[in-house]
Request: fold
Amino acid sequence: MNDLIAVQKIAGWEKLKTLVLDSVSSPITKRVYNMALDEFLGWFQQAPDDATVDRGTRSLSTFAITQRGGA
Reply:
């Protein structure tokens, strides 16, 4: 029974991912988004606890600030 749920979740993920990737026109952006979404799914499937989510949020915030050239 758990296998069926896992397959349904993966199918749902693929639909969501397709929606996101179809919303951008640049092939480079699609490639980068695809990689980032796959990394996110791998991280999310590890069933992160609140502390892990907090660390990930801080890390993404820091990354966004550095990409914009901020402090």
